[in-house]
Amino acid sequence: MNQSRIQAMITLVFWTICAVGFFFTVVRDGGPTMYGEDSARRTAGTWFLFFGLIVTPLARWIARKRWPGNRIQADERDERIQAKATLGAVIVLVIAVFLMMLGLWEFYGEEGCVPVGWMWVTAYGTLIAANLVMPAFVLLLDYRGWADG
């Protein structure tokens, strides 16, 4: 198993844990609408993000420790996978955020404003989604061999 796979799997597992924890933090006690008004829930959500942001460089370090010389060993195929995964992740995230904003506009358009809790959820959720989608694309492209041709 190469370093890219190890790093992507570790990152995906830990960011999935962060996403589940963040989801349960958001949906309890009033849901996303009230999330912005509850500092304890915002703090808990921030800790889930902090945990994920610490694990991401740790995953790279763990993946690197398995090879002699502790160097990142990547070839052209890994670089192509990374480039395609980045492009795919950006496209998915842009579409997801766009659709979420349209949905919020449709739901709250009559009121003239969106509750601030949704802005917190959008910001944190986008960060979590970016860190989930990218390693998922890396693993998908690597296992399917789509970067070979």
Distance between the termini: 21 Å
Described by the principal axes of the CA atoms, the overall outline is flat
H/E element order: HHHHH
Mean pLDDT: 85
Radius of gyration (CA) equals 18 Å
| Spans of at least 5 consecutive residues with low confidence | none
Percent helix range = over 70%
Into how many domains do the coordinates divide? 1
Summed up, the helix count is 5
Strand proportion, as a percent range, falls in under 5%
How many strands in all? 0
The computed structural class is mainly alpha
Instruction: Sketch the major β-sheet.
Output: none
How would you describe what is shown here?
The relative contact order is 0.20. The two termini are 21 Å apart. It is built from five helices and no strands. It has one domain (3-144). It is mostly helical.
Keywords:
149 residues, mainly alpha, 5 helices
